[in-house]
Design goal:
By secondary structure, the chain is an alpha/beta fold. The chain folds into two domains: about 220 residues, Rossmann fold; about 160 residues, Rossmann fold. The protein contains 15 helices and 14 strands. It has an eight-stranded mixed β-sheet with strand order 3-4-2-1-5-6-7-8, with helices on both faces. It has a three-stranded parallel β-sheet with strand order 9-10-11, with helices on both faces. Strands 12-13-14 form a three-stranded parallel β-sheet, sandwiched between helices. The chain is globular.
Amino acid sequence: MSARTAVALVVQRYGRDVTGGSESLAREVAERLTAFHDVTVFTTCARDYVTWRNELPAGEEDLGGVRVRRFPVEEERDLAAFNAFAEPLYGRPTSLEEERLFLRRQGPLVPALVEALRAEGGRFAAVVFFTYLYYPTYWGLQAVPDRSVLVPTTHDEPPLRFSIYREVFALPRAFGFLTGPEEALVRSRFPLGDRPAVVAGMGIEVPERPDVEGFRIRHDLDRPYVLYAGRIDAGKGCAEMLAHYERYRRSVPGAAGLVLIGRLAMPEPRVPGVRYLGYLPEEEKAAALAGARAVVCPSPYESLSIVLLEGMAQGVPALVTARSGVLLDHCRRSRAGLWYEDAHEFAEALDLLASVDGLRAAMGENGRAYVRAHHRWDVVIERYRSLIAAAAGAQGD
């Protein structure tokens, strides 16, 4: 395969100001692949996954050496109405018609993107789809199945049992997973056979000398704190985390504070000891992580957890829910984090990480070594290139 073959990536949102694990992964991979391929991203005009409102102009632009093609979303989403429609489906058998309606109402509804893939897909050596869940992946895979790679970013969630996702996992020529537990989950649900599959992961860059003291001064943080970074949402485990934190604060004298950064998708917490700092730029986020006693990851639904790895890269241990197989796997393999099953274990583990300097330092060194060994970008990009080569080679089968 020529060093400058054309490669396409498909993802539901794209841009440096677009937050989200799959979206961040797609952008980081796209920009690094430009060293080897001519890269085009097919995406939507949406910034926000809640409404899929068209906020970015349709058409083409160059971002970081990547040709980005944006297509307008045809229907905005009312999240409350969608949830009222979708939640009853999770507990009963569903028809194909209902599942396709779920896909449409979930969004983003972008038939023009799918038609462009169908018309132009033949000029790409491979088309890499990020996230199994959405409309562009389901219909896009059917448009270009013969040259497709799926990076599903899967976690165990109710829609995964729908029959439409058996179609999704039946079509790709190759698969890239973020972790071993993710691959095991997918293989337990879908027959992948001997199609090429690798744990490609994601690379983590370590910022140089974050301004921790300046961050503390700017945000008036004069006490030790632990950090939650990401979308602040009950579905991400945040409501439970806040309830557990209240118990910890009541039971531990001199308790560490809890700092939250990210976009709110629930009412702003009004809990003693909790500070919400809003959405921060990357430099401030890096400083917030570097200054924390631990990074708290309460979501049971994770396929990687970028913030956990970013914390480990800076020597910050993790405190994670035991309900996430992916988070547990990171902590066990790295020996750089603790986990909890209930409020008592949360309080006990948080107290250890916040107050025992030797434990925190040892875990911090373990975390740095883990990220260096498994999440260097040069190694990760070679894995993605191997998947692209596999999909390109499969076209002659």
